[in-house]
Design brief:
The protein is α/β, with parallel strands linked by helices and 250 residues long. Strands 3-2-1-4-5-7-6 form a seven-stranded mixed β-sheet. It has eight helices and seven strands, in the order ααααβαβββααβαββ. Helix 5 links the parallel strand 1 and strand 2. Helix 4 packs across helix 5. The longest helix is centred in the first third of the chain and has 33 residues.
């Protein structure tokens, strides 16, 4: 006579079935909760969601995923420029340039309405806009990052312009000097791009020795050093006149 113990194969099979059923229920519950979470918080797909499920841009100022950032509306350059021009900071900057910097350049005969001007480290284009508003039509703005419609992308250490292409090389941003990777190379390129007798005007931090900066411009002479206030910051404008263009620096 065979006695069936609690640990006999049929009893173990029933326990395994019960355990498998419980695990299946737990997994199903987890999957259902995960699906509800995804539906509640939105999918991570880059395809646009229906209007009833998606937030407008005005209600979602910061992207939560890379897809949100990629699908954001691009503001047209002209509209962005109009918004910048209306800002108090833009107005202060352009007004300071027109009142404190440009008159000195005109007095030295380095700036006129017919001048060809290159603005390096132009940022969003404050100086470009101010020069054009002051009657200078031929103004080109360059920076490491383009900012249309006023600023195009170009490396100030390797300017994509021919020798003597400009009457004036200008920068109202002290970072053009203090942030330059190779300041001597920037000086060479500025002197190459400006015509003989043309001007180079750079904003320099007051903590930096302007004489040391001027020494890098070997084919130019200092004609004026002027302390000005641009947007609340005290800077020193170093103004030089070129004695001749350089060549074969590329």
């Amino acid at each position: 006579m065979v006695v069936t113990t609690p640990h006999s194969p049929p009893a173990m099979d029933r326990r395994a079935q019960v355990l498998a059923t419980r695990i299946s229920i737990v997994l199903s519950t987890v999957a259902t909760l995960s699906l509800l979470y995804l539906l509640r918080h939105g999918v991570s797909s880059c395809f646009p969601a229906p209007h009833s499920l998606s937030l407008t841009l005005s209600l979602a100022p910061f992207p939560h995923t890379s897809c949100d950032a990629a699908s954001r509306r691009v503001v047209p350059p002209d509209r962005r420029l109009a918004k910048l021009r209306a800002s108090p900071r833009w107005k202060r900057r352009t007004a300071a340039l027109a009142a404190s910097v440009f008159p000195a350049l005109r007095r030295l005969r380095l700036l006129a309405g017919s001048s060809r001007v290159l603005c390096v480290a132009a940022g969003a284009g404050h100086a470009v806009d101010a020069l054009r508003a002051g009657g200078v039509d031929d103004v080109t703005g360059v920076d490491l990052v383009d900012f249309p419609p006023l600023v195009r992308r170009a490396d100030p250490h390797r300017l994509p312009f021919s020798d003597g292409a400009f009457d004036l090389v200008f920068s109202d941003d002290p970072a053009a000097v203090s942030g330059a990777l190779f300041l001597s190379r920037l000086a060479l390129e500025a002197e190459r791009a400006v015509r003989r007798g043309g001007g180079i005007a750079l904003a320099v931090d007051r903590e930096i020795d302007s004489a040391a900066v001027a020494a890098l411009f070997r084919r130019s002479r200092v004609v004026d050093v002027k302390d000005v206030t641009l947007d609340g910051a005290q800077v020193r404008m170093l103004i030089l006149q070129s004695n001749g263009t350089t060549s074969n620096h590329r």
